């Protein structure tokens, strides 16, 4: 069984922001497979019932703890379903990648991403990451924290949507441990 987590912040004020690209991606994945979200207060997360993706049981999760405490929700869901960290896939925004560039990575550091930092503190760092590029602010005086909480401009949205579709159309490769294919597709 796998746990697929989309990182973001709950609430209407954060919808369509760069920091919520993980939410956007997991929502489209759930829609593709007909999964329905349920709020589980004991996990402080929205989760889907077990969904079968190409023969693999998957639970999807949107932590409702805000980004900085995402690891608490992820750890609770993983513990309940007895899912090991190496079977967790995290979809998240990445400022160190250009807009709409995607990369796959297993393990490693958090590069200052507070959601990843929280997950690492709760579960260690041996989990899969799909990094979705949102770029950096163009002006040095523009704070990164403000930048990631801004709404995604229409000029960036279309290319991000294309990459989200690429992720959702190929997530089964990761579930079936086809790493060479996933790296080739996600890093193109």
Q: What would your notes on this structure say?
A:
It contains six helices and eight strands, in the order βαββββαββαβααα. The protein has 188 residues and is of the alpha/beta class. The protein has one domain (2-49, 79-107, 117-186): Peptidyl-tRNA hydrolase (Rossmann fold, 3-Layer(aba) Sandwich), CATH 3.40.50. Strands 1, 2, 3, 4, 5, 6, 7 and 8 form an eight-stranded mixed β-sheet that branches. The chain is globular. The mean pLDDT is 95.
Keywords:
Rossmann fold, 8 strands, 6 helices, alpha/beta, 8-stranded mixed beta sheet, 188 residues
Helix/strand layout:
Layout: E1 2-6, H1 21-32, E2 38-40, E3 45-47, E4 51-53, E5 56-63, H2 70-81, E6 88-94, E7 102-106, H3 114-123, E8 128-133, H4 144-148, H5 154-175, H6 179-186
Parallel strand pairs: 1-5, 1-6, 6-8
Antiparallel strand pairs: 2-3, 3-5, 4-5, 7-8
Helix pairs in contact: 1-5, 2-3, 5-6
CATH 2nd-level architecture: 3-Layer(aba) Sandwich
Poorly predicted ranges (pLDDT <50, ≥5 residues)?
Answer: none
Our count of domains comes out at: 1
Rg: 15 Å
- Specify the number of helices: 6
Q: What fraction of the residues are assigned to beta strands by DSSP?
A: 15-25%
Helix content: 25-40%
Under CATH, the topology can be stated as Rossmann fold
Q: What is the rounded distance between the termini? A: 28 Å
Number of strands: 8
């Amino acid at each position: 069984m796998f746990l697929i987590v989309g990182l973001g912040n709950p609430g209407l004020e954060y919808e369509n922001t760069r920091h919520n690209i993980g939410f956007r991606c997991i929502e489209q994945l759930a829609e593709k497979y007909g999964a329905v979200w349920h709020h589980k207060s004991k996990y402080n997360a929205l989760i889907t019932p077990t969904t079968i993706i190409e023969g693999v049981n998957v639970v999807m999760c949107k932590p409702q703890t805000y980004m900085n405490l995402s690891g608490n929700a992820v750890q609770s869901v993983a513990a309940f379903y007895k899912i090991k960290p190496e079977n967790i896939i995290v979809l998240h925004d990445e400022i160190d990648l250009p807009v709409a560039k995607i990369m796959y990575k297993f393990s490693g550091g958090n590069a200052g991403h507070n959601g990843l930092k929280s997950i690492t503190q709760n579960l260690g760092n041996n989990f899969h990451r799909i990094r979705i590029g949102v770029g950096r602010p163009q002006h040095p005086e523009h704070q990164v924290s403000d930048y990631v909480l801004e709404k995604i401009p229409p000029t960036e949205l279309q290319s991000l949507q294309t990459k989200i579709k690429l992720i959702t159309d190929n997530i089964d490769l990761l579930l079936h441990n086809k790493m060479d294919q996933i790296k080739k597709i996600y890093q193109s």
